Amino acid sequence: MPWPFELEFMQRALLAGLAIGVAAPLVGTFLVQRRMALFGDGIGHAAFAGVGAGLLLDVWPTWTALVVAAAGAMSVEWLRAHGRATSDLALALFFYSGLAAGSVLLAKSGDARPGQYLFGSVLTASWADVRTVAALTVGIVLAIAVAGRALFAVVLDEESARVNGLPVDRLNLLLAALTALTVVAAIDVVGTLLVAALMVLPVATSRAVARSFRATLLLATVFGEIAVAAGLTASRTWNLAPGGTIVLTAAAIFGVVTLAAGVRAASPPPHTHQH
What is the pLDDT of residues 192-216, one digit of tens each? Predict the structure, then answer.
């Protein structure tokens, strides 16, 4: 491959990043539509606690992160659905307790690399990591391909979906599970602190120009892929942290596209002559 992806470690980083560039915006589109943009952030902090538990128990951290993230996502959804706590309160619970538990467990395990899990380390990803991320992404894409219409009906109007006979509770749990899968898949790429940004920023960019939900889904993945490729290129060029650079690139794309869309909307229509 051409520079900057001529080296094998950059190729692994690109493949893992492109997989997340698809999965994160896909799931994030449903979360943004539901006004739960920070859901991925809360689950990311829960996953950080799972990473610490895995290192302490000498278990592959991806699996423990997946278990803890899934349990956290299901718990937040249960609290929201049963009115035991508002969504923001439930997310705050996992936001702070997950981060605190992760730091305690990491210190107890003797691992001195919290930044690797908080901000990602995609340049050190192995082929096994790439295969894991790709497998999780394929599962997410297939689930959305099968249940996407029903999920859209639920996030658009939950009560109407229930009246129409859709299994709303199971679909809500599915969305929570997909969020947990996305968070765990993205740990190596952007870390637990930045994963929510990659789930939201491409979606926000897409919503500035898209005219339908389907277009929002497709454009969000396009902007996610561009952010990953451009972010890794900038990271290699200026020796920057790849995870943060990918997110900053996504933020820059959002700013440029939003500004261009605003200028276009504010410009007067072309003058027409009547004959």
Answer: 888 889 999 999 999 999 999 999 9
Sorted by sequence, the CB contacts under 8 Å of residue 234 that are 6+ apart come out as 240, 245, 249
Residues listed for the chain: 275
First to last CA, the chain: 57
For residue 261, with 0-12 CB atoms within 10 Å meaning exposed, 13-18 middle and 19 or more buried, which class applies?
A: middle
**Residue 114, preceding peptide bond in cis (omega within 30° of 0):** no
- Predicted TM-score (pTM) of the model is 0.90
Look up residue 124 and give its two tokens.
Answer: 């050190």
At 216, list the tokens: 């929002």
Give the residue ranges of the chain where pLDDT is below 70.
83-87, 112-113, 268-275
Whole-number Å distance between alpha carbons of 191 and 195: 6
CATH number of 8-193: 1.10.3470.10
What are the start-end ranges of the H helices in 82-212? 87-109, 114-119, 127-156, 158-163, 168-185, 187-207
Q: 23 with 140: CB under 8 angstroms?
A: yes
Q: Which amino acid is at 90?
A: A
Quick: pLDDT tens for 72-122. 888 888 877 776 656 677 777 777 888 888 888 888 888 756 777 888 888
